[in-house]
Amino acid sequence: MKKTFTLTITTIFALAAVAFAADKDAIVTAEKAAWQTIKDKKFDQFQKMLGTDFRGVYTRGINKADTEATEVRTLDLKSYTLGEIDVVFINKDTAMTVYSVTIDGTEDGKDISGKMNAASVWKKDGNDWRVVFHTDMKSE
Are 131 and 48 spatial neighbours (Cβ–Cβ below 8 Å)? Predict the structure, then answer.
């Protein structure tokens, strides 16, 4: 009986670890896809990635989903390079990413090139992950 219980608990933990690893990969893929949709100017696709309760915090202000979807259209990313993306699960349906990104591009015609620090929060919505928070700032 003791061996069966131990085996069952070990199996449950192993399955949970595999599920979190798969979700971690999904989060990293989603974060990379968000940047690529902006670079490719696929703004309608980007808008679908936003949660309805999205908030973005930037030096120019705080955005809700509709403002974010409008303002992202002012970006022209010639290139970007993401640093290692660190994923932290807040719970099974919510994850935070923290990473650096080096970009070459403009926003509203103004040069924004350089290295930035960024963070996002992703929330599971059915089978999809949606971004509900994002911030980035120039690193010094």
Answer: no
